[in-house]
């Protein structure tokens, strides 16, 4: 909600158009124009509005390149995955003052997404989709203070779309995955411990059997059948892998 609020506020203030002019020279070094920056910035909230924002690009090549690299930006859906991995593998130590190592790693992941998107765009523009850059002309809107009701309605629309997605696709896939990981239940004996019982139940479940079936396909990647189950479930939504 905070990210959507800031994006819509900057856009309605008239700042985003000026930001496109400011970064036009920088974006030109990777073969894109300044308007592509707005689409990539929107992809930090979600790749879908970022891809939709490419409709303002006049060049079909620039539009296609921006669409291809927009998913590389670190969207909000990846934040739970990053938080889980950082909490598991990065120690909670202080680097300098109030700055912690976990926060720096998270910041680095966000910066890495932007760098990867720009580097991929430069490679695509020089190899697969070459073309001359078009002159960047755009009418600058005047600065104005947007009505609070307008910004609130835009934020509510985006937040409601995410809540509907979280309450339908993500919730449904999570419920199905729980059922696949739980059934059929394994009879427990007194001799088996909690850890052994949990591991045996997981392997005998429907998801466990499916994971063992696809394990030969993902073994060359260094993954086992447990990670394979998570990868298959995340095809519906990336948050489900958590």
UniProtKB/TrEMBL annotation:
Residues 2-89, 163-242 form the Nucleoside transporter/FeoB GTPase Gate domain. GO terms for molecular function: ferrous iron transmembrane transporter activity. Keywords: Membrane, Transmembrane, Transmembrane helix. The chain crosses the membrane at residues 34-52, 64-89, 101-124, 169-186. InterPro entries: Fe2_transport_prot_B_C (IPR011640), FeoB_GTPase (IPR050860), Gate_dom (IPR011642). Residues 106-156 form the Ferrous iron transport protein B C-terminal domain. GO terms for cellular component: plasma membrane. PANTHER family: FE(2+) TRANSPORTER FEOB, FERROUS IRON TRANSPORT PROTEIN B. This is Nucleoside transporter/FeoB GTPase Gate domain-containing protein. It comes from marine sediment metagenome.
């Amino acid at each position: 909600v905070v990210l959507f609020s800031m994006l819509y506020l900057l856009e309605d203030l008239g700042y985003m158009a000026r930001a496109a002019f400011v970064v036009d020279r920088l974006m030109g070094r990777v073969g894109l124009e300044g308007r592509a920056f707005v689409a990539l910035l929107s992809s930090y909230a979600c790749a879908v509005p970022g891809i939709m924002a490419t409709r303002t690009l006049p060049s079909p090549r620039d539009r296609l390149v921006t669409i291809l690299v927009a998913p590389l930006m670190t969207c909000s859906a990846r934040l739970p995955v990053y938080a889980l991995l950082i909490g598991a593998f990065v120690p909670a130590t202080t680097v300098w003052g109030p700055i912690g190592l976990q926060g720096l790693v998270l910041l680095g992941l966000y910066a890495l997404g932007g760098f990867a998107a720009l580097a991929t765009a430069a490679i695509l523009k020089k190899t697969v989709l070459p073309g001359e850059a078009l002159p960047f002309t755009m009418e600058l809107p005047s600065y104005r203070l947007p009505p609070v009701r307008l910004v609130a309605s835009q934020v509510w629309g985006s937040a409601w779309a995410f809540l509907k997605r979280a309450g339908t696709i993500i919730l449904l896939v999570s419920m199905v995955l729980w059922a696949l990981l739980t059934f059929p239940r394994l009879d427990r004996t007194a001799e088996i411990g909690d850890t052994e019982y949990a591991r045996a139940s997981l392997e005998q479940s429907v998801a466990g059997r499916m994971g063992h079936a696809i394990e030969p396909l993902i073994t060359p990647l260094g993954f086992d059948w447990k990670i394979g189950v998570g990868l298959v479930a995340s095809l519906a939504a990336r948050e489900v892998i958590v």
